[in-house]
Amino acid sequence: DVKVTQSSRYLVKRTGEKVFLECVQDMDHENMFWYRQDPGLGLRLIYFSYDVKMKEKGDIPEGYSVSREKKERFSLILESASTNQTSMYLCASIMNTEAFFGQGTRLTVV
Amino acid sequence: RKEVEQDPGPFNVPEGATVAFNCTYSNSASQSFFWYRQDCRKEPKLLMSVYSSGNEDGRFTAQLNRASQYISLLIRDSKLSDSATYLCVVTPNTGTASKLTFGTGTRLQVTL
Q1: What is the pLDDT of residues B75-94, one digit of tens each?
Q2: Is the CB of A54 inside 8 Å of chain B's CB atoms?
């Protein structure tokens, strides 16, 4: 059974902190994506990766970076968290255009 | 103009009703189309793919109209368990076929 696991369901961080969101997939997929989901705005693509050590900017990359050192793990980094980054973050592993999502991380920046 | 547009709803329908959602997309070169379902506080999951010839899965029917650039989802005999947000998803023809673009979703509430 397909599995994408995000390290935390809920996080509360302070403004200015460096935040790491981790995502692991067990399907040996090459393509991994990070989205954020906000009411009225839907899912917006932050960054994606097609291979180890490879990354590409999505539609809203500002304030974020990513790391893909191993095929199964894709990390999203908030360099200096701000209140406008309070959101639901969803990691997805995509194979043949079907996306398998993690359970999401609800991040609150205070 | 948004790449993928949906009516946010909510659509409130009684059990047993038939309900239909539409979704429009702006890129005429889009390749693939899908409907995802997202339950409250859960992650999205693939409901069905959408083909030009239309496809049916039980009570659900999806259709694609390339000329008018919209896709539709029809749910017959609605159940309480169908209550969810339905996301329209499109892949653009940029060579990165796996890059999915999501609509904001249409919320469906089925009531007794």
Answers
A1: 999 999 999 999 999 987 55
A2: no
> Across the interface, do A43 and B87 touch by the CB < 8 Å criterion?
yes
The string of DSSP codes covering chain B is --SEEE----EEEETT--EEEEEEES-TT--EEEEEEE-TTS--EEEEEE-TT-EEETTEEEEEETTTTEEEEEE-S--GGG-EEEEEEEE-SSS-TT--EE---EEEEEE-
Q: How high is the pLDDT of residue B51?
A: 82
* Tens of pLDDT, residues A52-84: 999 999 999 999 999 999 999 999 999 999 999
Q: What is the rounded CA–CA span in Å between residue B37 and residue A102?
A: 14
Between vectors from CA B37 to CA B34 and to CA B38, what angle results, nearest 5°?
Answer: 135
Q: Which of B91, B101, B104 is facing A41, going by the closest CB pair?
A: B104
Residue appearing with tokens 């969810």: B84
pLDDT bucket at A17, cuts 50 / 70 / 90: very high
- Chain A residues whose CB is inside 8 A of the B8 CB are 40
What are the residues facing B93 on neighbouring strands? none
